Amino acid sequence: QVQLVESGGGLVQAGGSLGLSCAASGRTGSTTRMGWFRQAPGKEREFVATIWWNAGSTYYADSLKGRFTISRDKAKTTVYLQMNSLKPEDTAVYFCKMSVLGYEYWGQGTQVTVSS
Predict the structure, then answer these.
(1) What's the pLDDT tens digit per position in 57-97?
(2) What's the rounded Cα separation, in Å, for the pair 114 and 89?
(3) Which of 55, 110, 102, 43 lies closest to 80 in space, CA to CA?
(4) From edge to edge, which strands make up the β-sheet containing 78-83?
(5) Which strand (E) or helix (H) includes residue 82?
(6) Other CB atoms closer than 10 Å to residue 90's CB: what's the count?
(7) Residue among 116, 110, 102, 100 nearest 18 (CA)
């Protein structure tokens, strides 16, 4: 089993920055990749960014390139999401996801609210 715990959400003004963390524990030895998704009120969950665990290569949603940066610390089994130039439309619950040997695990989510 894998447990994911997100942290770092909160309230920020438009134009500001916020960093999220997702720490994984449990049977994470064969992690393939980790990523971030978000879900705004009344909308479907959408992809934000992903990072391949061993290679460190990254992939972003087109609309977020240049503002969001995903990174990871393999020693801490933690993935990060740095969000800059935040906009009110970035308001959502942000979820961490981990892929391990074909299984997918989700965190509980952390709220990010961007005020105008």
Answers:
(1) 999 999 999 999 999 999 999 999 999 999 999 999 999 99
(2) 8
(3) 110
(4) 2-7, 18-26, 78-83, 68-73
(5) strand 78-83
(6) 21
(7) 110
